Amino acid sequence: MGGVLAVGVIGGQAFVDVAAPKWLTVVAVACLLLAPVLVGLPFRDLPRYGLPRPGEPFFATTRLVDKGIYRLVRHPQYLGYALLVLGFGALNPHPAILGLAGGAAAFFYLQAVQEERACRAEWAAEYEAYMGRVPRFNFLLGVFRVVRERLTRARG
Q1: In total, how many domains does the chain have?
Q2: Cα separations in angstroms, 41 against 4, 46, 52, 102, 108
Q3: Is 74 helix (H, G, I), strand (E, B) or coil?
Q4: What is the CATH number of the domain that holds 90?
Q5: 87 touches 10 (CB < 8 A)
Q6: What is the residue-level pLDDT of the chain in tens, covering all 156 positions?
Q7: How much is the pTM?
Q8: Dist. CA 20–CA 40, nearest whole Å
């Protein structure tokens, strides 16, 4: 459903045009620049660290991945999709576009929550510990935690 609403956000741009204030345009561009990174890095990190079985898709990992982008955020692709639709919505902040963008982002969030149920069933305590270390969507908190961890190790 999030993907359907995302198409509405992008396609709806052709039918309505509301000028965004400069500050919102800056936020939108930042979202649109970060989104492909978050969507793309799992294509590298899941097969590298998750060891999918031969012939299985890259996301069918045989172990929990907590390295690479997954060290910063638990659901980089869903976060990337949410930033993508919110960024496009912010470029053209018509109420209908913003509503579709918010709805799409909410569905991506719900997909992440649903995926976590499956991950907790598969990896149990290991996933619970991962959830305690790595935020679901808060990329900035994830970066802060990694930097703090490295600084602590460097001092100690």
Answers
A1: 1
A2: 23, 8, 16, 24, 18
A3: coil
A4: 1.20.120.1630
A5: no
A6: 888 888 888 888 878 888 899 999 999 999 999 999 999 999 999 999 999 988 999 889 999 999 999 999 999 999 999 999 999 999 999 999 999 999 999 999 999 999 999 999 999 999 999 999 999 999 999 999 999 999 999 987
A7: 0.91
A8: 28
